[in-house]
Amino acid sequence: MKNLNQTKLKHWSEPVHLLLQEHKIKQVAMVPDAGHANLIQLCEADKAMQVVRLTSEEQGVALLSGAWLGGEKGILLMQSSGVGNCINMLSLSTSCQMPLVILVTMRGDHGEFNPSQVPMGNATETVLTAMGVLVRRADTHEAVVEEVAGALHMAFNTTRPMAVLIGQKVTGAKDFRKLTH
């Protein structure tokens, strides 16, 4: 992470993008998400990375498993509401001992306005853990960078699935009143 000390960084996505470059991440699977918007833009601008837009999050598990078998590393970006879509597919990574790194922006978390986001937001860590995914949580910009660095090392060195939950204290909670006016 020598580049991190040389550059004044404004948002957690910038050092995380540098980590992805450092770890030679080639494929970025994602369902568009405002919480990941800055990171997605950085990855799309990076000629060494291919960003693949998914129609459903479980497609990312299959895509990145294929990437790993083909000799490339990838990462899956999703919102916590998409974790429930992945339950069956997560068994692929655990049973085949393939690395998988998932960055999950949380909903139903700190300051949530949408009641339908709360149940999955509350269950996200439990669901991932039950499927054999090792979970870390980050509630500050600095913690995001630290946890992503650790997850990348651990997942690709131990061939295990890892998820970093990025709390709404980092991404910011949407305000229903601003969305309706």
Characterise this structure:
With about 180 residues, the chain is α/β, with parallel strands linked by helices. It contains 9 helices and 6 strands. It has helices at about 1-5, 15-20, 35-45, 60-70, 85-95, 120-130, 140-160, 170, 175-180, and strands spanning about 25-30, 50-55, 75-80, 100-105, 135-140, 160-165. The chain has a 6-stranded parallel beta sheet with strand order 2-1-3-4-6-5, with helices on both faces. Helix 2 runs parallel beside helix 7 (about 140-160) and helix 4 (about 60-70) runs parallel beside helix 5.
Q: What's the mean pLDDT score?
A: 90
CATH superfamily: Thiamin diphosphate (ThDP)-binding fold, Pyr/PP domains
Helix fraction, binned, reads 40-55%
Low-confidence stretches: 1-7
Number of DSSP-assigned strands: 6
Helices and strands, in order, run as HHEHEHEHEHEHEHH
Q: Ends: how far apart?
A: 43 Å
Gist of the model:
The chain has 181 residues and is an alpha/beta fold.
How does the SSE layout of this entry go?
Layout: H1 2-6, H2 13-22, E1 25-30, H3 37-45, E2 50-53, H4 58-69, E3 73-79, H5 87-95, E4 100-105, H6 118-130, E5 134-138, H7 141-158, E6 161-166, H8 168-171, H9 176-180
Parallel strand pairs: 1-2, 1-3, 3-4, 4-6, 5-6
Structural features:
six-stranded parallel sheet; Rossmann fold; 181 residues
